[in-house]
Amino acid sequence: MTAQVACVECGKPVSARIARRMKGLCLACLGRETTHTRKDPFYLFYNSLIERVHNSADGFGGLSEAEKLYWAVALLRNEINNGGFHQYFFNSSGSYYDYAEKGLVAVGAVQTLDLLRQAKEIVFPTIPVPVDTEVRRNLLPVVEPDSPNPEWERKLDELDQRFYANSDNLTPRLEAFAHEQGLVSDQADRDS
């Protein structure tokens, strides 16, 4: 399991390695820090999805199929970059596992899909990934801070490293998908 530190802005746990590269910030705070990001149409689109999923009556169910796929893959990318596959499955992001798989297929990210499926087999080898966050958390292996890393943790760390080394260029793939599906217009890109 990768070492985690608190984001210097919000206190959310973030991978120590990622924090070193991002001035001690988590991805969300780093995004808020840059004015360019605030104008980026993909950043704005993703934040509109966050707003709709978390603050509308319909939540995730109110998204179109393309929006659900985009959401699930972007969430997967962000969680793994922030704290690895264990964090992805531990947090609410793991609830969207099936959509993440479908989304990775839709954007053509076959290597990342393979890594995701390998991670799933490590933590949930005999059952589908539970959608309910509490159920999933209760079934996940526990990280013991003062004990030697168990085999499952070493395997997830290896998958994390493989993801960081080659994440199928998920960001450009998501952007192309958003354009193809009409989620973000070409005009919005030119205006940013």
How would you sum up this structure, described in words?
It is a single chain. The protein is mostly helical and 192 residues long. It folds into two domains: 1-33, no CATH class; 35-191, no CATH class. It has helices spanning 16-21, 27-33, 35-39, 41-55, 65-90, 97-107, 110-123, 133-139, 151-165, 170-180, 186-191, and strands at 4-6, 13-15. Strands 1-2 form a two-stranded antiparallel ribbon. Helix 5 runs antiparallel to helix 10 (170-180) and helix 7 (110-123) runs antiparallel to helix 9 (151-165). The radius of gyration is 17 Å and the shape is globular. The model is unreliable at 188-192 (pLDDT under 50).
Summarize the structure.
The chain is mainly alpha-helical. The protein contains 11 helices and 2 strands; from the N terminus they run E-E-H-H-H-H-H-H-H-H-H-H-H.
Write the layout of secondary structure elements.
Elements: E1 4-6, E2 13-15, H1 16-21, H2 27-33, H3 35-39, H4 41-55, H5 65-90, H6 97-107, H7 110-123, H8 133-139, H9 151-165, H10 170-180, H11 186-191
Task: Provide key terms for this protein.
192 residues; mainly alpha; 3% strand
The helix/strand class is mainly alpha
Beta fraction of the residues? under 5%
The count of helical stretches stands at 11
Q: Give me the side-by-side strand order of the main sheet.
A: 1-2
Helix content: 55-70%
Oligomer designation: single chain
> Which spans have pLDDT < 50 for at least 5 consecutive residues?
188-192
Total number of β-strand segments? Answer: 2
What is the overall silhouette? globular
